[in-house]
Design goal:
mainly alpha; elongated; two-stranded antiparallel sheet
């Protein structure tokens, strides 16, 4: 699941970075309201710079992966939608400092919807799979799937213990814990699945 966030955001970042570099290669005027055609879109120096910065940010967040990539995709996606709406209203005025044309507006909407889709993928589902970074964070697991993990078992354990982990939401396995005074923290059984799982060791306070 995390690969969707990373590859989707990384691809869109690469597209924007390429568009920005092509704009610089054409030596565009920075705040020209007329702009010049670059890869089928209108552009000027300011738009080329913004494209490079946003592209690098998306690539950086894609490299980090996990929830960072997901949130970045969603945030930039909504920013592109907003940019398309705003620039559509000022497109034929002197305030069109990014040299937008209708093709740019459509491009902004397409990129925005794509990034939002990549960013929200799997987050609005009622049942998240165990390789989803949000499911893993909720159950106290690292964002990326580790080598040798049994995702099927983790999914079963997570389903059995959701809403049944005592005071610690990260205690997926229902392992008994102790307070600083040595008193045990009560943890429910975790249901029939956990009852057949290997017994977890309980470390007594010294």
């Amino acid at each position: 699941m995390g690969k969707v966030y990373r590859y989707g955001g990384g691809f869109m970042g690469l597209v924007l970075l390429t568009f920005g570099i092509l704009g610089f290669a054409n030596q565009l005027e920075f705040f020209s309201t007329e702009g010049k055609e670059v890869a089928g879109l209108s552009s000027n120096g300011a738009l080329a710079l913004i494209s490079v910065v946003v592209g690098l940010c998306l690539l950086g967040c894609a490299a980090v992966g996990g929830n960072t990539a997901s949130w970045a995709n969603s945030a930039f996606g909504w920013a592109f939608i907003l940019s398309g709406l705003v620039n559509m209203t000022i497109m034929r005025t002197e305030l069109n400092f990014l040299a937008f044309r209708m093709s740019n507006v459509i491009f902004s909407f397409v990129v925005g919807v794509a990034l939002i889709t990549f960013g929200m993928y799997g987050r609005v589902s009622g049942t998240l799979p165990p390789d989803n970074p949000y499911w893993r964070e909720r159950h106290g697991l690292p964002p990326e799937v580790q080598e040798g993990e049994d995702l099927r078992l983790e999914s079963m354990l997570g389903a059995a213990t959701d809403g049944d982990r005592g005071s610690d939401p990260h205690n997926m396995a229902g392992v008994p814990r102790h307070t600083s005074t040595g008193a045990p923290i009560p943890v429910l059984s975790g249901g029939p699945i956990l009852s057949g799982a290997p017994a977890q060791p309980v470390h007594k306070p010294r």
